[in-house]
Every structure is written in structure tokens, then in C-alpha cells.
Amino acid sequence: MKLGMIGLGRMGAGMTERLRRADHEVATYDPNVASTADTLEELRDQLDRPRAFWLMIPAGEITEQTFQSLIAIVDGGDTIVDGGNSNFRDSQRRYAEAAARGIHFVDVGVSGGIWGLENGFCLMAGGDEDAVSRLAPIFYALAPADGYAHVGASGAGHFTKMVHNGIEYGLMQAYAEGFEVMKRSEFDLDLHEIAGIWRYGSVVRSWLLDLLHSAFEEEGGELEHIRGYVEDSGEGRWTIHEAMAEDVPVPVITAALFARFASRQDESFAAKVNAALRNQFGGHAVRTE
For 113, which DSSP code? Predict the structure, then answer.
């Protein structure tokens, strides 16, 4: 099957290579990387109708601009797939805009990171059955066995991926806190070794733990070359927002997101207020600069 891949970053490049290994023909466009096409129009002309385009670019303005550029130049019956981490509300809007022009739009949540090329990418597709089923050969080539599903109507793919990433926040924070407790304990623990043995037979074994073990192996048990600054790309915030709208308590995901906020503060003003209050009501000592 022929596909036009837009975006050849770490994920897009790996997906393109995995598809080519499965004997799919992939035309590419990325203004920052050597590609088969220099423009979206040229990419369009390299594909046979009905065409399929896959956006693998950062969510937000660049995805919006590229989507608007595409629907202006493609033909009715063509399909646009957004595989980035877009907000599912944006995906529902884009679906409606595309449908008004006779264009199919499919939102696909993609998980797998830089390991997806070899291990496969978990795919969660949202959209109309006819559009999704036509792309099934692409989805099955990208995913590992049992790693793909058409999860629902337009927006469902990105909604599912949003919740997936919210859960990921909580899992990562639990590992982070547990290993800090061990690091600060009275015991001289080899965290690299412990992460290693927990991968076998333990109820907390997971791929994330495999990755943590690899990080200790590469960086050393102190992770001394890694700064404790943790960014977020939005999905955790969106998960909490939707949970609030649905009256669903998500204290673990919320706490994990706030822990990421705290990691970015060199000096917390809230902590200063706390220390000042303890000094005022109880005479507790404060540390001064």
C-alpha cells in the first residue's frame, strides 16, 4: 500500500522504515530532513488516488497548519491520518472539516517511542469504519501482534492515547518516588541491581522498569548527568480536565502532574511561604540565603 508520511522525527522516521520493511511504499515530506518530496503538493502527486497521508508532527499549531494546507490540496476520498498527540477535541473538529469536503480523517494514538521500529507501535484508531478499515494493512504492519485496535468514532483514538499518557505519568512517578526512598535510606543499595531483579517475577515488573534499568546502566546509579527537570506535553493536563468534567477522581495522575511542575522550580515560593509560617507561629528556624 502507498502512504505519504509527513514528519520524519524520531517516531515518523521509525514508522516509515518499519512500513518499508513490510513492503509498503512510503513517500515522505519533512522540510528539515531528506525526503521524497519538497512540498505537500509534490507529495500528493507521488501517491495514487485515493491517497492516504499520515501526519507525524508535534501537536498544536504545526499540526493545524499542515492539516489546513492538506485539505486545501487533496481530493475527495483521500484520507488524512493524525498520529501525533493532538487533543481529541481538535481531532473531532478536523474530522468535521474534512468530512465537509468529502475527505476522510482518522485520529491514531501511537505509543512505542524510539523502540517502535523494532518492537512495533501500539495503535489506537478513531474514525469511520470504512476509512479505518482501508488503512488496516498499514496499521497491522506498524503494530506488534495484538497491538492495534479501532477503538471508536472520531476522537476516540486520541482520547484513548490521552488517558494512556495520564496513566503513564502515574506509573513513572511511583517508580521515581520509590527509588528515591531507597536512595535516601540507611542501606547502601545498588539501585541498578534492584531495578534489574524487579524485572523478573516481581509484580511491579514492566517495560518502564526495563527502561529505568537501562538508564542506570548508561548513566550510573546516581543518574548524575541527568537534570531533575520533567516536562509534560499536555496529555496529563487534558486527562485531568476530562476527569473533572466527568466527575471522576484521578488523584494519582493529578499528583504526578504536579510533581512534574515542582521539578521545574529552582526555588519554590510556596516552600518559602511554608517556612515563614512555621517560623511565625512556632518559632521554627528558617534557612536563609
Answer: G
